[in-house]
Each structure stands twice: as structure tokens, then as C-alpha cells.
# Entry
Amino acid sequence: MPHAVLARLPPGSVRLVIAFGLLLLVSLLVLRRRPAGPLARPGDGRLPVPDPAALFLSLSAGANASIAADLRALTAGPHLAGTPAAAPAAAHVLGRLRAAGLQTLTRDYAPLLSYPGRASSLALLRPDGSPLARLSLDEPADEGRRLVPPYHAYAPSGAAVAEAVFVNLGREEDYAALERLGVGVRGRVAVARRGGGYRGGVVARAAEKGAVAVLIAGRADGGVERGVVLLGGPGDPLTPGWAATDGAERLGFDDEAVKRRFPKIPSMPVSAETAVAIIRSLGGPPIPAEWQAGLGVDAGGVGPGPTLVNFTYQLNEAPQLVS
Ligand SMILES: *[C@@H]1O[C@H](CO)[C@@H](O)[C@H](O)[C@H]1NC(C)=O
Ligand SMILES: *[C@@H]1O[C@H](CO)[C@@H](O)[C@H](O)[C@H]1NC(C)=O
# Structure
């Protein structure tokens, strides 16, 4: 009984009810109801090529209203996988699919999930190590701290007191440009802005160059971007290729196949405001003009230092969110 399954979810247990799979079903259902018109390309004998605009942008007024209501219900609050708030979200999707007359079922999985801690901190220190300013690790738009705190899922806990270097997007070419300026990140905190590809790749590259931690800033006109930094594609790292059911065989954390999927250094997403506060305190070569876009940084250099960054990242073993 799916309802019984949902009700049995103990609060705080690391269980993932696959709402995404159900959402996919909703999409498929919607697509199935589309008239065949835009899909067919008469005459040329090849497979029909769907026109995405026709598929997604010409829904009826009734579909618009129900999509709006579902989106509102599902986005009204955080429902991070494995937290108590995930069960009502899954129940909502289940209810809607049932109402549409579909046969439904739910499955419980117990993959390795990663949750943010509240003990993380970020501060600027003077070159002599005395405190200069505390920097916010919060989402600027979330003053009431109602949302999931900004974090990079699967980042290791760790701490660093080190000079910072602004690495632009954190791509190979950015490190090459820094090298031409005589600036390296070894033993330092890399401060990047978002846009250099998969964030896990940005963190791994910084680690490869010797950085001890990475902060990735969102755009000045956007928020803080949470996300995963695991390497090697999606999926539970402990059950690669098979289902993470309760009794399933699992690889150990010391298994090479598991270890190489985890980042070696701590990282966090930060607001543009926080990144700019760090970058404005940096000396060194001036920031290349094209690196200033997006963040809205108008002063400072690429570093390193002379200020120090004191960064502590603390992850939680279990979900701490109350809904
Ligand atoms: C559905 O909503 C979209 C986005 O607001 C709008 O562009 C479109 O015209 C709406 N369609 C109908 C049929 O109301
Ligand atoms: C760095 O921050 C941590 C956590 O807030 C704190 O315990 C530590 O004393 C700080 N280190 C310095 C050198 O300020």
C-alpha cells in the first residue's frame, strides 16, 4: 500500500521516495495527450522530429491552471530527499497520478545522501590573522532561513585558514591566465564564480591545482546555487549500477571506486556579495576586465592575499531540517 509506505517513513530516516520518477510520468502523460500534429513531418519518410516549442508552450488554459497549482504545491517549501517534508510532496504527486486514473506504486530506496550543517563559517582575517569581518554563508533572499542552507552535497567537512585567489570560472584557461600573472592556488582558497561547467569539475580542478578549499559564487542578480559535487555521474556512490534498496550490497567508503567519486577538499556555494567582499580585499595583479562581469566586482585583485580567509565546512550525517 503506497500510503502505508509513505506513512511508515520515519522522520529523519535516509530514504528517498522517487517523486522525480512520478513527475516524469506526469510529463509523459501530458505529452501523450498532445495532438500528433507537431510531431509528424509528412512526406520525408524519416522518424518524426518533435518540435519542443509546440510540445511545451501550447497547453490548454485548463492544463496551465493545473500545472500552476501543482508547481505551487510542490515548490511552496523545501522537500529535500530523505527529510520529513519529502513525504507530503511524494504523496501529492501520487494523489495527482491516481486522480488521473493511473496505476501507481511507490518504492523506498536508501541511497547515501548528504545534508548541510549549520556549523559552517566564513570570515576574513587580516594578514596577521586577527579578525576583519564575518561573511555570510546564507542565501541573501532567505532572510528567515526557511530554505535548505546553501551547501554542496557530498563535499567533505574541513577547515582552512589561507590566502584566497580569485580564479574566475575555475576552468583550465583561467588557471593558465593566472599562471601568466604568476599566481597559483597551491595551499590557498580558490574563489570562483559560477559558469565554468559542472561544479564538481570546478572543485576537482582546484584540488588538482593544490587549492585547500573552493567557494563558488552565484551571479550578482541571482541566488546561491546549491548542488552536488560528486564525480563520475549521477547515482548512489555506494551502489553504482544497482538499486540502493535496504538490504542491498554496498561498497565501503574505502573502496577505490567510491573514493575517487568524492571531492578531496571542502567547498561551498556563496552569494556574489560574499565573494565580492573577499575579492575586494585581495591585492596582487588587477582583475582582468572580462572576469569582472557577472559578479559585479569593481575593486581588488586576483590575489593571493594579503587577507586570509577562515573557512570551516561542517556537513551533517543526518537531515536536520524541520518542516
Ligand atoms: C499558458 O501559460 C503560458 C505562460 O504563462 C502562456 O504563455 C500561455 O499563453 C498560456 N496558455 C493558455 C492556453 O492559457
Ligand atoms: C576560524 O574559524 C573557526 C570557526 O569559526 C574558529 O574556531 C577559529 O578560531 C578561527 N580561526 C582563526 C585563526 O580566526
Notes: Residues 59-61, 64 surround 2-acetamido-2-deoxy-beta-D-glucopyranose (ligand 1) (CB under 6 Å). Residues 2-33 form one domain.
